[in-house]
Amino acid sequence: MPSISQVVPATGPMTGATRVSLSGSGFVAGATVMFAGAAATNVSVSGDGQTITCTASAGSYGAADVVVANPDGSSDTNSYFFGPTITGVSPLSGPMAGGTAVMIYGQGFQLGVAVTFGVQDAVDMLVASDGTSITCLTPGYAYGAVDVTVSNPGGDSATLANGYSFGPVIGNVSPAARRTDRRARR
Questions:
Q1: How far apart are the first and last CA of the chain?
Q2: What is the dihedral sign for C-alpha 38, 66, 33, 74?
Q3: Secondary structure string (H, E, C) spanning 55-93
Q4: What share of the chain is helix, strand, coil (3-state, %, to 5)?
């Protein structure tokens, strides 16, 4: 009979695709793994039956069961947590002075969320009622690309590496255009 003692990592994005290792005993070749009722892929059982590695399926935000079932029908259950996921940021850049309205897209965002750009906190967060987007204002920051991190009140978070860039802004160019007519010189 399988017995799951540890799931590493114990949390992952709702989009799935996280490589997960299950430690325990009694795992046999041909065992299946389910995350919140959906089959994991790339399931591999170690020769000693103490480890299974797999790729987590996608799931809904929150706690979910992870179930290992051996071919004989015996099974064991442990827990896994599907956390927030960032899928995009728009716009991708803004001035170093901050104050740019930014939309962060993803899943699993909750009311009371905190957003950071690098190590600076964003302000005026507004979370969509379905938890799929956040509107906020960027903080001031030094030049360059920074990670964008969304942290829910419960402590679960998601990070988009180099998700936003701070840079100088060109206000205007003067003169606006200069035309050279080569024919007029001949």
A1: 93
A2: negative
A3: ECCCCCCEEEEEEEECCCCCEEEEEEEEECEEEEEECCE
A4: 0, 55, 45
DSSP 9: S
Q: What is the mean pLDDT of residues 59-85?
A: 94
Instruction: Lowest mean pLDDT of 104-108, 148-152, 170-174, name the range.
Output: 170-174
Evaluate if residue 182 carries a pLDDT over 80: no
Of 44, 40, 46, the closest CA to residue 18 belongs to: 40
Q: Is 52:27 a contact under the CB 8 Å cutoff?
A: yes
pTM given for the model: 0.72
Helices (H) and strands (E) in the chain, counts: 1, 18
Give the separation between CA 56 and CA 59, rounded to whole angstroms: 9
